[in-house]
UniProtKB/TrEMBL annotation:
CDD domains according to UniProt: NUDIX_MutT_NudA_like, TMP_TenI
Required co-factors: Mg(2+)
Catalytic activity: 8-oxo-dGTP + H2O = 8-oxo-dGMP + diphosphate + H(+); 8-oxo-GTP + H2O = 8-oxo-GMP + diphosphate + H(+)
The family this protein is said to belong to: Belongs to the Nudix hydrolase family.
GO molecular function: 8-oxo-7,8-dihydrodeoxyguanosine triphosphate pyrophosphatase activity; 8-oxo-7,8-dihydroguanosine triphosphate pyrophosphatase activity; 8-oxo-dGDP phosphatase activity; 8-oxo-GDP phosphatase activity; metal ion binding
GO biological process, any: thiamine biosynthetic process
Keywords: DNA damage, DNA repair, DNA replication, Hydrolase, Magnesium, Metal-binding, Mutator protein
Enzyme Commission numbers on file: 3.6.1.55
Stored Pfam families: NUDIX_4 (PF14815), TMP-TENI (PF02581)
Domain Nudix hydrolase: 4-133
Full protein name: 8-oxo-dGTP diphosphatase
Amino acid sequence: MTAPRCLDVAIGVILDPSGACLVARRPRDLPQGGRWEFPGGKVAPGESPARALARELDEELGILPRRAAPLITVAHDYPEGCVRLHVFTVHGYAGSPRGREGQPLRWVPVQDLPGLEFPAANRPILRALSLPDRYLITPDHPDPEAVLRGLARTLEKGTVRLVQLRAPAWTQAEVLALAREAVPLCHRHGARILVNADPQTAAAAGADGVHLNGVRLAQWAAKGARPQVGDGQLVAASVHDADSLGQARGLGCDFVVISPVAPTATHPGARPLGWNRFAELARAAGCPVYALGGMTPAHIPRARARGGQGVAGIRGLWQGEGVGG
Ligand SMILES: Nc1nc2c([nH]c(=O)n2[C@@H]2O[C@H](COP(=O)(O)OP(=O)(O)OP(=O)(O)O)[C@@H](O)[C@H]2O)c(=O)[nH]1
Ligand SMILES: [Mg+2]
């Protein structure tokens, strides 16, 4: 899925402790000229992306990154050719950044980045910066009150900021009724919530987006249309293989969940993909990717080291009762 001869580029999302990010304006005469960019540049032959990042940040800004961690890798086809951006967050560096090539620099709060004009390939980078490292999926429990109690208890811990409400055994009306209670609960705790349902149900509940299960993903892909959601709302999907990943990519999903990465009690018959296959699919995704299946917060570093955004889970993230089989 990744084009074979892409130009490899190493990019640094340099963050200061207040959550501001350093951006530079590209010279007018370059491809994507006049747009804002994250500092970085082409990976030289034989160089690793991390090494290239250090060299480029020195050449362009006169700084040496101290703490850099992979954020996402995205491939994008421009009319002039394909680029593969290896994106790192940089939390610490030696020196003070200055535009050594005469490029204007600006520190911008991360939440204001979507207001700047970036190259088209940067959309998944902005999405990755806006998403947390864990995605809670609610357990399939017959009692809605138990789901709401468990959700409240989980949100009170303060570590979950993204939720998928999932109740596959319920009718549309029941899902909507539960969602109408779960949405304000999540918002009170500063969390966003997607509903695993049709987009109308998600919208009627005032949710932050829709999560497409495998069946709905295939249906929308067959129509060739991304579900209509409001501005800034999220479309996510469940992916299990290269085909469903291709469908999600085609719809321009904001993020996907890949499963099962490890054995999981909720789907005992499913064959785990393993971390290597997860990493391959994550590289080809073109959007942030969560690992699902046997995941706990302890797996977050492993998921991130393999190109993931973090982990998704039911029992590994849930604080309440109701995590049945
Ligand atoms: N640095 C950087 N490049 C980006 C970003 N987004 C993006 O699509 N690119 C693409 O990555 C490619 C390489 O970037 P670059 O022009 O910075 O390369 P470089 O520093 O080695 O430039 P040079 O050839 O002048 O030495 C360009 O085609 C550019 O369009 C971004 O946010 N930052
Ligand atoms: Mg550059």
